[in-house]
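Section 5: illustrative case.
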């Protein structure tokens, strides 16, 4: 085929795809949350805006190792031009959630984000008020942040642990183990590391992580707008990095966690010594903080990617998580 002739065809297909996209509509109800809105809003299902909203939600969720799937984008047109009216609309949305008996917990880092849950369903909400409009994004989360697990009522017995027997490994080369999730239990201890896990995993390791730009003093990431990396070192230390950027609002979040690691059967045990969280808005740093997180674990298995042939580390923070996260070796 002559490539010069194929270009117009591609353009026509692309245009047709754009024309086929869903259009905005006026609504009085959030389908995702099953609540009545305080007044009419615009539901925007267009691919670009949904993707942009998902990226914004991931500014909060990624740093908490939570995955966001479906997203609902709602916009309230603020006819008065008074920002307080837009804030009031968002507050009334939160009241509607409370009426439906959702539990709401603001993010400890950014009150623009709210964690919401009810009946074993988890959501993340982002809200922003301005003179012209108020924006609300709802996203389905696969779990809550670890810090919120202790406030979630359990239907299980009061025993100290829950055993999950249906652990399924994605690799036939690794023997699955019975996995135990510990609730309020003593720290898991192990002094073993696994040679097969040593190395850099994911798209944000090694040379892609630039710790400082001397001209600006900013912590930067090279060539990656959204990424995750896990470096497991032979001396028993680890470096976990993640970055998320968003164009609306213009945010960038970079999180790095360092500490020691070990292995106990199908779990990697992390004992963090420092987590550095930074957030920029319009290239102005808004948050720059250090903390020491509690111990956490990942369930793991190794397998080659069917397409690339690369060796990949497949991880889950919770065995009830639907999908394994894939981190291929760099």
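Designed sequence:
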């Amino acid at each position: 085929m002559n490539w010069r002739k194929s270009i117009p065809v591609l353009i026509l297909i692309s245009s047709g795809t754009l024309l086929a996209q869903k259009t905005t509509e006026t609504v009085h109800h959030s389908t995702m949350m099953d609540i009545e809105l305080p007044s009419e809003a615009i539901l925007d299902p267009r691919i670009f805006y949904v993707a942009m909203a998902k990226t914004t939600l991931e500014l909060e969720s990624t740093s908490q190792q939570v995955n966001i799937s479906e997203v609902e984008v709602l916009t309230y047109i603020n006819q008065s031009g008074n920002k307080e009216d837009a804030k009031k609309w968002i507050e009334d949305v939160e009241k509607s959630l409370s009426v439906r008996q959702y539990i709401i917990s603001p993010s400890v880092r950014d009150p623009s984000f709210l964690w919401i849950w009810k009946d074993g369903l988890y959501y993340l909400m982002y809200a922003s008020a301005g003179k012209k409009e108020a924006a609300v994004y709802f996203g389905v989360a696969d779990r809550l942040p670890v810090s919120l697990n202790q406030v979630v009522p359990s239907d299980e017995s009061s025993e100290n642990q829950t055993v999950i027997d249906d652990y399924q490994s994605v690799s036939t080369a690794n023997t699955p183990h019975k996995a135990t999730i510990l609730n309020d239990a003593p720290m898991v201890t192990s002094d073993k590391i696994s040679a097969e896990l040593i190395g850099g995993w994911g798209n944000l390791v090694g040379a892609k992580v630039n710790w400082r730009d001397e001209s600006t003093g900013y912590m930067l990431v090279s060539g990656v707008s959204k990424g995750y990396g896990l470096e497991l070192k032979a001396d028993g230390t680890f470096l976990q990095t993640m970055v998320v950027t968003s164009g609306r609002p213009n945010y960038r979040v970079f999180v790095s966690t360092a500490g020691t690691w070990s292995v106990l059967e199908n779990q990697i045990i992390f004992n963090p010594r420092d987590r550095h969280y930074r957030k920029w808005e319009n290239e102005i740093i808004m948050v720059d903080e250090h903390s020491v997180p509690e111990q956490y674990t990942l369930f793991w298995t190794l397998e080659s990617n069917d397409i690339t042939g690369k060796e990949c580390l497949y991880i889950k923070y919770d065995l009830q998580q639907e999908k394994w996260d894939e981190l291929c070796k760099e």
